[in-house]
Amino acid sequence: MFSDHLSDLTAADNNDIRTITDLYNALKYKKHSEVRRICHDHPEYVLQKISVYNDIALHMAGHTKQTDLVLNLLKILLADCNRKLSGIKNDDGNTVLHEVDTSDAMKHAAEELLKREAELLTASNNLGEKPIFCAARYAQSQMFDFLADKMELEKLSLEKSKAHLRRNDRTTVLHISIAAECFGTEDKYRGQDIPHQQHGPS
Q1: pLDDT digits (tens, 9 = 90+) for 106-129
Q2: Residues 6+ apart with CB under 8 A from 120
Q3: What distance separates the 2 farthest-apart alpha carbons in the chain?
């Protein structure tokens, strides 16, 4: 399946395809030194879509909870790279931050991503989920609190907070937190459909 996908990369020659395949396998099997070597030699591959799901290397490193690798790949990216990470999405519509936010252990990686591009906070995936919603869906309360602080969620109006805490099917953070048994987040939102005050009603 992966080789079929690569055959569609019309701009890539045989050497490119071979290198991209090596990068994909190194990411899949968590061979960090090999990933770093390939991306150091080919910095453009950090943002190259390399999987059948249109993941880039940063997506794969984030999804597999490889914090150090995400940080290394961000360092390899040119400081003046004009491509917006918030505009690079996989087939689920996820940005790199959506993938990173599925684990509390990736908080440092999330912080570095947001230093590079704050717009990642407000990017939606195909379900209409913002990154903070994904943190709640995966019951990652520390990541949720970190993102809420970065967004200054408590200062947002009710309507603006709804945009972050509800997805397209009208499922709210409260609903998803109860389903995921994310007790810390659930307690903050109990009794409120889409809360404006994070610490319960006054």
Answers
A1: 999 999 999 999 999 999 999 999
A2: 85, 86, 95, 96, 97, 113, 114, 131
A3: 64
